[in-house]
Amino acid sequence: MTKVPKNLFSTAIKTPQISSAVICADQKSLLESLKDAVEHKLIKPILIGNQEKIKNISKEINFNIKDFKIINENSVTKCASIGCDLAKNSHVQIIVKGNLHTDILMRTYLKKEFGLLGGKRLSHIWHMSSDKLKKPLFITDGALNVLPRLDVKLHIIKNVIEFANKTGLEMPKIAILSGTEDPIASMPSSVEAKQLMELAQKENLKAYVYGPLALDNAISSDAAKIKNIENKVAGDADILLVPNLETGNSLSKIMVYFMKACAAGIVTGGKVPIVVPSRADNRTSKLASIIAAIVDTQK
Fold it and tell me: Per-residue b/e over 233-250, b at no fewer than 16 CB within 10 Å?
C-alpha cells in the first residue's frame, strides 16, 4: 500500500469493510486509491457514474471490481443525489467525491430532503503528515467555511476535537492563528482569536485552546520561548484553527508542495463524513482521506 499516516491506518483497520458511496468514480487516481483501500479490506465501495469509463479505468489499473455494485449514471448532479440518498437510508457510512466539483456535491448534501444535517455545523479538517513534522498536524477550516463567524468557529473547534479524539489525542492542543500573539485592533483576527479562546474556556472543552498565536509561536518551541509565551499550546500545537479559508488552503498546499506532506481531508459534522479531495491530489492523499473518513465514523 502507498504510504499513508500510520496513526490513521491503525485506527481505521479496526472497522473493516466500511460501505462507501463513490460519486463520479471514473477517475484514475481515485480508483487507484480505492484499489488500495479494498486490498486492505477497509471499504466496500458502491461505484456511481459512467459504468463504461469505470470499468475501462479499472481494467487499466488491474482493479477487480466484479463484486462491487455499479450504478450507471452520466449526470454528475444525479450521481450526487444517488450517493446522498444512499447515505440518507444508511446504506453507506461514508461518501467519497470523485470526478465532479465539490460545490455540486455539497449543495446536494445540504438539501433537506436527504436529512444529512444534524445539530452540528459542517466543517473541513486536514490531517497533515510529513517526515519533516514531529507529529501529525491538523488544519481547520481550509476548504469549506470561507470566513466563519465567531459562533461558527466554535463549532469548527468542537468538530476537530471530536475527530482528534478518535485519532488518539485525548487533550489536543489548539492554536487559534493570527498574524500576532497579541490582540490588536488593527488585526481583527487577533481580537477574535482571544474572544474565541475565552468562549472555548467557558465551555470547558476537552482540549487546550489558546489564541491568538502566530504560526511560528504555535509550532516552534524556540520561537515561543524567545517571545516569552508560556502555555500548553505554544510551540507544540496539534491543531491550527485558521482565521479564514484562504489561510488554511494556502498553508495545506505549502505543506504538500514544499514539504511533501500527505494531506488527508474530510468534511465532518453531518450524518456521514465526506471525502472531498482536490482533483489534483495524488493517489496517496486520496487514500489517506478515505482512511480519515473511516476513522471519523468510529464512536
Answer: bbbbbbbbbbbbbebbbe
Q: How far is CA 5 from the centre of its chain?
A: 13
The rounded distance, in Å, linking the Cα atoms of 29 and 26 is 9
Distance, in Å, from the CA atom of 115 to the CA atom of 85, rounded to the nearest integer, reads 9
- Domain hosting 287: range is 6-118+270-297
Q: 16 and 85 in one domain?
A: yes
- Domain CATH for 193: 3.40.718.10
Share of the chain above pLDDT 90, in %: 93
- pTM of the full predicted structure? 0.94
Are residues 98 and 21 both part of a single domain? yes
Q: State the total domains in the chain.
A: 2
**Sheet holding 94-97: strands in order across?**
70-72, 43-49, 18-23, 94-97, 274-275, 262-268, 123-129, 137-140, 239-241, 173-177, 208-213
Same domain, 129 and 235: yes
According to DSSP, residue 114 is labeled G
| Residue 70 CA from chain centroid, whole number | 26
Q: Look at residue 265 and tell me if it is in a domain.
A: no
pLDDT tens sequence across 165-222: 999 999 999 999 999 999 999 999 999 999 999 999 999 899 999 999 999 999 999 9
